[in-house]
Amino acid sequence: MEKRKDEIYCATIKALGIYATVFTDGSFVIRTELTRNASKANEHHTNCIRLQKDDPYLLGAIQQLEEYFAGERKTFDVPLKLNGTEFQMQVWNELKKIPYGTVVTYKYIAEKLGNKSAVRGVGQANGANPIPIFIPCHRVINTGGKLGGYSGGGPEVKKRLLELEGYLDSDLFI
User: Fold this and answer.
1) Annotated catalytic sites, by residue?
2) Which string of b and e fits 27-56 if b means at least 16 CB within 10 Å?
3) 9 pairs with which residues across the strands?
4) What percent of the chain has pLDDT over 90?
5) Helices (H) then strands (E): counts for the chain
6) CA-CA distance, 102 to 125, in Å (whole number)?
7) pLDDT given at position 38
């Protein structure tokens, strides 16, 4: 198949009860969607060309996700293409620095950006992350230690990802 301009490619895998769909433009990963619901895993994918998980246009992203879900991968090296405001880009770049198996708070990210009062904005930028897992927004929790929301598939998906990474604090999941 020859790549055409503006084509979007996608493939979905299931691991740990999570459906993960990767979208690329053939050169960059541009979005990932996570859900626990099989029908939702196919809901928004009518505008993409579905590929086999090992197709070169997927840039090895599916393979790296499979390795991650198998506990064999802690970092990713697929090319990402992000579009957002300057503030969102700053937040997403901070998220990429959070090590596997660790969590930080929204407040911590705001402080890293030099603006302690930007906690709510950090939360909004975190929720707008178009490429969850590759940009690990699941590693950000509330200051009080609660999970908080997770636009990348809901709190149950966030919990499963943190468990996979070995972050097991029983108080966190109450």
Assistant:
1) 137
2) eebbbbbbbbeeeebeeebeebbebeeebe
3) 24, 49
4) 76
5) 6, 6
6) 19
7) 76
